[in-house]
Design goal:
The chain has 478 residues and is of the alpha/beta class. The chain is built from 15 helices and 20 strands. It starts with 20 loop residues before the first strand and ends with a strand.
Length: 478
């Protein structure tokens, strides 16, 4: 591999104490599921079994919802915002104190590089709790009327790509507004949510305010369909989002859906090319491309396309793929065998439909789930790899000549979650941002997240906003 040789720099996993098995977190305690069934969670980098985790059936979900209802009625729904904030600040501080442990555990269970879990995921988790702690006693000034009220019990279902961060996006605003929650983490990445349950205990959070039920889609469906929840918050695929929208239609439940994406990352000829190349790499290879807002379609102006592609390929040969716990690693493991199959299948379709495939030369480990960073050139708008979410380290490259063509192509997608614009002209950034049908538009950067800024989609990327002041709205009755 060109570039530097690095000595391995593995982060020690001794800081994490993974238990052989985990129960469900209901009413402030870990309990066994009623029917006693469990599933295994593995490290996608080694296929090693990390732990056994309980599967929550309908009666377990019911128990968790009842716990949340009673905590809502007896303590949390009536507690002052000032007091709720104290708990949220406490949780935020404990997350910071246990940051290294959480980062190692996230990398083990998810496969993401420790550099990202340590420097992005976990700091953002703490930041979300700090941010929403700040809102808890100021809700009357948030723009939702003089006395906004909590909704009740929220049923929250999250995906595997940012397990703890998605938990924070869901739980922090819900609790700040006075709601209680039942959260279901994804079946391939339940472990950090279960350590978060321990953090709730450590913070002396009143029992039942946060309940965690583990399991697969059936557990999620049992939660979403439970008659005693007041609000559904879902992040995941558009396919499941549709099922959920149908399931709650006609009920009194409020719902927010954060779904898939197929973002355009648009590079104009006047962009600082080296900086743009870094942004392209960050846009699609961050978190192995398992990012709903990933810049998975590169739209590059024809006049600089060759130059950009040459630099991009050179940069890609320097990406280090491998052990997620090694601090030098840029790209870790694909989260599951199933996801790897999907990435392979769509990549094969890309080649068979006529796009040209190029993968960075790199040695992939023998065990575990891996995919080399890959780009497709000669992609047309009709190709499936330009239309469907691959959710992996695969970039589809298209070109354009004029800003109008860039807008047309960028918006030619069923999704509308994010977009990126690279240019030195401020006026062009504003004009493009105005015309792009995307919830977030980044300018001369990509994949930047902050708790104070709202996030969400248009079209099949879902509805509702999370983050920022806007993120409070979904959890308030006003
Ligand atoms: P998924 O939809 O398969 O699963 C998401 C969650 O839903 C999991 O916890 C799963 O167990 C649960 N689930 C599955 N079937 C269910 C059902 N019928 N009822 C209720 N819950 C059910 O998605 P995934 O593969 O875990 O995640 C990847 C997807 O998530 C991608 O499409 C990605 O774009 C999207 N995503 C979106 C955002 C966003 O903010 N818009 C963020 C992260 C991921």
């Amino acid at each position: 591999m060109p570039g530097f040789d690095y000595a391995p720099a593995p982060e020690s996993r001794s800081i994490v104490d993974i238990k052989p098995s985990y129960g469900l977190f209901v009413s402030g305690e870990f309990v066994d599921p009623v029917d006693g069934t469990a599933f295994k969670t593995i490290s996608p980098a080694t296929e090693e079994v990390l732990a056994e985790v309980a599967t929550a059936g309908p009666s377990d979900v019911d128990r968790a919802v009842q716990a949340a209802r009673s905590a809502y009625a007896s303590v949390w729904g009536t507690m002052s915002g000032r007091d709720r904030a104290k708990y949220l600040y406490r949780i935020a501080r404990i997350v910071q104190e246990r940051a290294r442990e959480l980062a190692v555990l996230e990398s083990l269970d998810n496969g993401k590089p420790i550099r990202e879990s340590r420097d992005v995921d976990v700091p953002l988790v703490a930041a979300h709790f700090f941010y929403y702690a700040g809102w808890a006693d100021k809700l009357a000034h948030a723009g939702f009327g003089p006395a906004p009220q909590p909704i009740g019990v929220a049923g929250q279902v999250i995906p595997w790509n940012f397990p703890l961060l998605m938990l924070a996006w869901k739980i922090a605003p819900a609790l700040a507004c006075g709601n209680t929650v039942v959260l279901k983490p994804a079946e391939t990445t339940p472990l950090t949510a279960l350590v978060f349950a321990e953090i709730c205990q450590q913070a002396d959070l009143p029992p039942g305010v946060v309940n965690i039920v583990t399991g697969a889609g059936e557990t999620g469906a049992a939660l979403v369909n439970h008659p005693a929840i007041d609000k559904v918050a879902f992040t995941g695929s558009t396919e499941v989002g549709r099922l959920i929208a149908k399931a709650v239609a006609g009920t009194r439940k409020r719902v927010t859906l954060e779904l898939g994406g197929k973002a355009a990352n648009i590079v104009f000829e006047d962009a600082p090319i080296d900086q743009a190349v870094e942004g392209i790499v960050n846009g699609i290879f961050f978190n192995q491309g398992h990012v709903c807002c990933a810049g998975s379609r590169l739209l590059v102006q024809e006049s600089v396309a060759d130059q950009v592609l040459e630099s991009l390929k050179r940069r890609m040969t320097q990406l280090r793929v491998g052990d997620p716990l090694d601090k030098n690693t840029d790209i870790g493991a694909i989260n599951s065998a199933e996801q790897l199959d999907r990435i392979r299948r769509l990549s094969e379709i890309g080649s068979s439909e006529g796009a040209e495939r190029w993968s960075a030369p790199c040695e992939l480990p023998d065990r575990g789930f891996w995919f080399a960073p890959t780009i497709f050139t000669g992609v047309t708008q009709a190709h499936r790899i330009a239309r469907e979410e691959i959710f992996g380290p695969v970039l589809s490259v298209l070109t354009f000549r004029t800003p109008a063509e860039a807008v047309e192509k960028a918006n030619n997608t069923p999704y509308g979650l994010s977009a990126g614009v690279w240019t030195e002209k401020g006026s062009r950034i504003l004009a493009m941002a105005d015309r792009l049908r995307a919830g977030v538009v980044w300018a001369n950067t990509f994949n930047k997240f902050d708790p104070s800024s709202p996030f969400g989609g248009y079209k099949e990327s879902g509805y509702g906003r999370e983050g920022g002041r806007h993120g409070l709205e979904a959890y308030l009755a006003y």
